[in-house]
Write a structure and sequence with these properties.
79% of the residues lie in helices and 0% in strands. By secondary structure, the chain is mainly α. The longest helix is centred in the N-terminal third of the chain and has 29 residues, at 40-68.
Length: 370
């Protein structure tokens, strides 16, 4: 069974367009909050309620994925992303905007759980790591390009931003209809054994806590370094380059041998980030963070899918991706109560502790062959 089929390319194109629609709003929505009369706290609420909505609805989405089909849920999520920007353009109060954000969050929950489950369904077992790497690559390309496009569209107006986001999602809806879903012998959703989901979910949560801290606090931490946004560029570039090769390697050896060095690299990148007093060191820490994070996330996803039966796959991935989002939310909130100078050393310790816990839990599997 080949990996790179026409169906996979359509699916990856849909993922690219979906996340492009999402990331085009990333730098523009906070400005829109101010335009309609919101303050800094309201910006935090608008960002946070979207994440919380996604986290809350993911387990419910997982339960219904087998019943109504992965493809139908993908279409639903993409359609929600298509109509939500129109609601934004008619919103004039923060309270109303929060309601739209809750609705929008349901869309990303539905699309991501169903699409990543469909990737698992359609990829050969011996190439799962590579498949999840390709999935992550599509999202990363969107992250690299779309925020700049959104910022450029502000030259015209917010209407153009929202219309572009809707148009991207509209094409995504069309592509979702073209995706072929394999027939499932069992449409019943079984409960996932907690032990099979807990470890990957805890590890990804510990990683994304640091990701949330970078999103929220790096601009303040590195405000004295001119051009600090180079960190994001280096992070994105290293992520794009490494995703598929690391996925291929993880298919040829115990996945733990990729995850452990990846966790160590994430931990060390935060040490370098803390010590960054120059743009070069900051850029180097971004490269390391991209290499580490892009090694851990797709390989953990593949490890989880390896261990759960097909009928429980969507449910397991819903908890896993909810942990991803929850970590970002926790990192954005918890580290806000700490001094800036302590954020990244503590983040390094958190990830390093997770690495030790993962090694202790998986030490018997390190010598097994794939």
């Amino acid at each position: 069974m080949p990996l790179y089929t026409k169906n996979l390319f359509i699916l990856l194109a849909a993922v690219l367009l979906f996340f492009s629609s999402f990331y085009i709003l990333l730098p523009t929505l906070p400005l829109y909050v101010h335009i309609i009369g919101g303050d800094q706290k309201d910006v935090g609420l608008v960002i946070g309620v979207f994440t919380l909505s996604s986290v809350f609805f993911r387990p419910f989405v997982g339960k219904f994925t087998n019943r109504i089909g992965r493809k139908n849920l993908m279409i639903t999520g993409a359609f929600i992303f298509f109509v939500s920007p129109f609601f934004y353009s008619f919103t004039t109060h923060v309270a109303t905007l929060l309601l739209v954000r809750i609705f929008h969050g349901v869309g990303i929950a539905a699309f991501t759980v169903s699409s990543i489950t469909l990737i698992a369904d359609t990829s050969p077992i011996h190439r799962r790591g590579e498949a999840f790497g390709a999935f992550g690559l599509s999202a990363m390309i969107a992250l690299t390009v779309s925020p700049a496009v959104g910022t450029w569209l502000l030259i015209f107006s917010f209407t153009e931003v929202f219309l572009t986001a809707a148009a991207l999602s509209g094409v995504c809806v069309f592509l979702c209809f073209l995706v072929k879903e394999p027939r499932h012998n069992n449409t019943r959703t079984s409960f996932v054994e907690p032990g099979k989901v807990l470890l990957p979910s805890v590890i990804i949560l510990l990683c994304t806590i640091t990701y949330g801290s970078i999103i929220a606090f790096l601009p303040f931490f590195a405000e004295n370094i001119s051009g600090f946004s180079l960190f994001y560029t280096c992070y994105a570039l290293s992520s794009i380059v490494i995703r598929i090769p690391v996925g291929r390697i993880s298919d040829c050896m115990p996945r733990q041998r990729i995850i452990l060095p990846g966790l160590f690299t994430v931990s060390m990148s935060l040490v370098f980030l803390y010590a960054s007093h120059s743009l070069i060191l900051l850029a180097f820490s971004g490269l390391l963070y991209g290499i580490g994070f892009s090694s851990v996330y797709p390989t953990l996803t593949a490890l989880l899918v390896d261990r759960i039966p097909e009928e429980a796959r969507a449910q397991g991935l819903s908890y896993f991706t909810a942990s991803f989002d929850l970590g970002i939310a926790l990192g954005s909130v918890i580290f806000g109560f700490l001094p800036l100078s302590s954020i990244y050393p503590l983040g390094s310790v958190i990830v390093f502790t997770g690495m030790l816990f993962f090694y202790w839990s998986e030490r018997s599997n390190l010598s097994s062959s794939r």
